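Our preliminary data section would be incomplete without showing what the modeling component actually yields. Below, a chain of 219 amino acids is followed by its predicted structure, encoded as tokens that our downstream tools consume directly.
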Amino acid sequence: MADFMNETGSAPLGERELHFPNARMAIIASTLLLGSIGIATFGLLHASVAFTLGVLGSMLLRTVPPGQVYKAIDWPVIVLLGSLIPEAGTMQTSGSADVRARFLVDTVARENTIAALAAILITTMFPSDLMKNAATAAVLSPVALGIAASLDVNPDSFLMAVAIGVSCAFLTPIGHQNNTLILGSGGFRFGDYWKLGLPLEMIVVAVSLPLLLQIVWPL
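Predicted structure:
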């Protein structure tokens, strides 16, 4: 074992029991998940209601122990969103989001719709490298809606740009838990992430803009 570790540069994992899946429970869990997605997709119920029913169904059918459901909830994220969603609403009602949107439209994009979409996409990418992506989305979604209203275009394109931007936390080890996990084990430093992350974000921008503008959510 020691020779193998030295030759391959690997580290041993702690011993753990193997749990073989229960085929019946796997089918039930998959059905509940697909059912929740289908209900939300076809607009039969709001997404939050559809997935809540899916979780309750999982608990009732014992595909997941009820106690484990409670432990799996990321409570810090719940508290963070509970604080930021009212802030996002305040940005809209107070006009703060409109001021920021007008700045991006007039100063950065100069009334150009494509440039405005690129601006909100790129602007969203950088805060997601420093804080939770859900929090970034809550703060910048009102700004995206303000830009769409200023340009009188489809707001869905701008909201999807926010959704894509908050998923691109590639520049720091603290932007996403996956980045943090490989920091020590991979021998990386804080400044190593942007070397690959920045070109990757440029590729995302280059691919996303044509898709949003012409194929998926045209303006």
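The longest helix spans residues 193-215. The chain has a mean pLDDT of 81. Preliminary results of this kind motivate Aim 1 of the renewal.
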